[in-house]
Amino acid sequence: METGGTEDFEQPIISKDVDGEETKDIQKGESHSYHINIKLPQNISGYESIKQIDRIGLLL
C-alpha cells in the first residue's frame, strides 16, 4: 500500500539569510538582500514538483 505523502521522501534542507547573515539588525528604509537556499536530496526522482512559500513576518 502506497501512502503517497511527503513522509516517503527525504526532505530538502532550507536555510535563509539577510545579506549573508542568519540574523541582522536593520533600519527602516534600508535595502537588503533576503535569500532562501534550498538543498534538494540527491534522489528527487519521486518528486512531481517542489514549491517553496515563505511568509515574511509583519514586523519586517
From TrEMBL:
Residues 1-30 are annotated as: Disordered. Residues 1-10 have a biased composition (Acidic residues). Residues 16-30 have a biased composition (Basic and acidic residues). This is Uncharacterized protein.
